[in-house]
Queue: 4 jobs
Job 1
Amino acid sequence: MTGGQIAGLIAAIAFLVLVVFIGVFLTKMVRTLGEVNQSIKTMTDDMDVIAKQTEDILANANTLLDDVNHKVATIDPVFKAAADLGTSVSDLNEATRELTGKVSSTAKKSVTSNLVARAGSAMFNAYRGRKSKD
């Protein structure tokens, strides 16, 4: 065997080793891609199920929200009436305070003028009584 043939044999063996490694690599890569593909299919199926369940939940939530809105609209007049009643009670309390203040000030004036009148009458009677003794 000549040097060129030995170099050709070494190159052929190196090429064979390279082809074997590439073949093993490609085989493993195909297997991995198959597993990834299966995982993606499983995830897609799971996502479809989750999406369907989410749609059902959202539909139920919309129905519930419509029901709550209807009931709130039914109850709104009750709260309006309660607010009006609160305003009326507040107005009544204010009017009662004003009336109480007027009655109280009138009563104080009346008591004061009665005391002054009685004191004046008592003093006049005392003065007359003294004058008649003289």
Job 2
Amino acid sequence: MKRKRSLKDILERRKRKAFSHEGEILIGKVVGVHGLKGELKVKSESDIFERQMEVIDKVTLYRGTRKEELPIEGLKPYKDIYLLKLKGIEDRSGAEERIGGELWIKEEERAPLEEGEFYYEDLIGLEVYDEKGERLGKVKGIFEQPASHILEIEKENGKVILVPFIGEFVKEVDLKGKKLVVSLIEGME
């Protein structure tokens, strides 16, 4: 007799990851397919997605318990996403099997950054201080918005401060010292 799983069991199982992504960086998610020749529609998880794709020759695609390292055949912008052609995915049905998959690269394959550019994962966890030196909290997340990225700063009491990631508000980013200095205006806190 087959045991019926509870909703709690199912949700717990979904939380567990099939793979450890230690030493890897998420750069994109497969959100659909395009045409009949196996092109994937990819939503970028990086501001420098195109530049990143130029310096690598393959990506690791994870979907569920499946892991594939696939060579890159082509990439082109398409509306607000990208069309990615990977070797080994030759038709629409093969591409459809990868919907919901994630594209990861090794940390050492990251594209070099220009002055004032940062990887999201390098900012997450930084201690945040105001210009007076008072600790505000830690960077919990980053939201992409059309005008600017928004830093989500979690205070010790669990409250959240949202700060646009622009020079007017972010005064200093010290990755070595693991700290960020911001200037807040009335109403931000």
Job 3
Amino acid sequence: MSAIAIQDFYKDLLKDACPEITNFLNENIGKEIGNFNIFDIGEMYKSAKQRPKMPYNRRAYYKVSLIRGRNKVEYAGKTLEVKKFGVLFASPKVPYYYTPLDEDQAGYFCVFTPDFMSKSNIGTDIDYLPIFSAESDFVFEISEKEYEAARAIFQRMQVELSSDYTFKYDLLRNQLMELIHFGQKLKPIPVSDTTKTAASRTSAIFIELLESQFPLENLQQSLQLKVPVDYANALGVHVNHLNRVLKESTGRTTGEIIRGRIFQEAKTLLNQTHWNISEIAFTLGFDELSSFSHFFKKLSGVSPNVYRSNLLV
């Protein structure tokens, strides 16, 4: 699953309404201020020709949404429904799907890139904040009073964003942090053993990385992370540390988990596609058909061809 960049977000949102947006983004994304913007959900919903959709995908930016209206949010195997008022905190690590369930939609959302926060006192990585951690809830139902409190923060940010104040981005970072702390206070995360917390976060992010590569939907896709060391490098940990953490939390080694997920996808592709065995082997990261056949037979007891033939009986 490729990440949707902030440029793609604006292009999809604005369509042809603002053709100069591409040049603007190419010139400004990556500059020291990063990117930050606010949108009025009610106004967007009224002007949309059809109901806005947020596809299930991984985004390369952060998003905080204040919601008024019935909405469904799907992420990490969970489905949550906001019945009236809610607030959502999305990070680049977690793909999600967002669906409005009625026509009465209002609120605000802001989007920002990681480098926007790099000038704040928390540095470039805001994932250490509980609201963006792997253990955090993703969306919260809130009261009308809480909705109005968060709405006031968004409105202040909206006014500031339009101002010509020289230090407005510093002020916007502070207001954004106020909004983040508002979310964290909704359901405080209890203080726990830091070692266990770090280990569980590593396990959760490993699973997210693994699952982000599936499903394989076309022959142009192929696995990029294939072996334990690939995941260890992506997580910035030693491969032995990753193996120990996963063994303690799941009872299986890193290699066993990866092989099990590849085997599961192999069976799905053999069952649900017309791709030939060589094509399936390639998308699953095997350089040789014989290697894939050996891998599959070791785990299933039969070759891929026999497995597929038995499905047709």
Job 4
Amino acid sequence: MIVEKLAIHGGKPVLEPGMGVFEWPVTTLSMQAAVIQQLATTLSIRDRSGVFREFEDAFAQYHARRYSLLSNSGTSAIMSMFEGIQIGPGDQVIAPAYGFHASVSPAVYMGADVVFADIDEQGGLSAEWAMSLVGENTKAIVVSHLWGLPTTETFAIAEQCARKGIYLFEDCSHAHGATLHGSLVGSIGTAAAWSLQGQKIVSGGEGGILLTDDESIFERAVLQGHYNRRTRDEISRSSPLWNYHETGLGLKLRAHPLAIAIALEQFGHLDAFLHQKRLFAQLVVEGLREYEFLRLPDIDGMIPSWYALPLRFDARAAGRLTREDFVAALRAEGLSEVDVPAATGVIADLPLFSAPEKVLGRRRVTGRPASTPSNLPVARAYAAEIIKIPVWAFAQDEAVVQAYVVGIRKVADHVARWGSL
């Protein structure tokens, strides 16, 4: 086997600087036209009309959900789910220990106790861990479909939640259009939220959306951040909440029409994006399957949306090499988008969760997380091993994807042969 000299040692890189950059969303003429059309229409929508109604109807219909509600961010959409069940002091929320903080940080802000359960080998919430933490104050469990890979045990968790009278919330921010055993993520739990932030598959630059079939959750979510017209029009006059329609709960979390015009245009291409991403992900998986120290996702029973493709670098099988050295060698080959995630991690360690009373005060925080930093073995191993690479969504990017496979294989061949670089 001929092993090429690595770029990190003076060899020729697979990609020249600037050639392997992942840009998302891609600004197209149709996206520009959508923005111009919205500019000519209005820059403020206070009720459920225009582009807001179009997007909410289309998104709800796609997921076969009854109620939909746009907001200014995915975090606000998640906060609206928690408001929908009146989360507050004395309530407990169970969440995966690995992920992005916004999946559950709004619950802490609202005074709830967050308990972190360990994850499974795929990075999703472990049903066994989650259910072992359920107590008399457990009100909700959150699953996060990280990287666009559905949480493997979502249905098992949903079944247990239904049996115990616990709400199941889905954070689908990475997983637009992903399916688990034939069901779209976001259609399984009591309610679900998606981010429409810049890097998301359906992007408006900023924005978020909540879906649910539960009228009471929807009405409180509207009341929380959409006072006056939406509350007047969409809360039943027979509901005691309608009396508060003028002020809502005092917050304004409305989305911006330009953002939603972009997101609506993007949503129209979602199935095409997903088709291409899945082809490219398969190309990468097949190209890297032979390397024992690169653990690939097990997607049996699911169709991911591939927000990113996570690899786990097994240092024990890689000889004398660290994950960081491996990533440095890949980047030297011009694979600039290969990344050790920084925004995601073992969120139980973050001060907001480990010491919330120091910033929120004792009056708002009634308890402390039950899972301590020492008892999350799978989450800690996952955080120490994860490497992610982007998955492109346009056919014209095939040469770049092929180059990434070539570059990873080039470095991996050195590791496989010598256990080092």
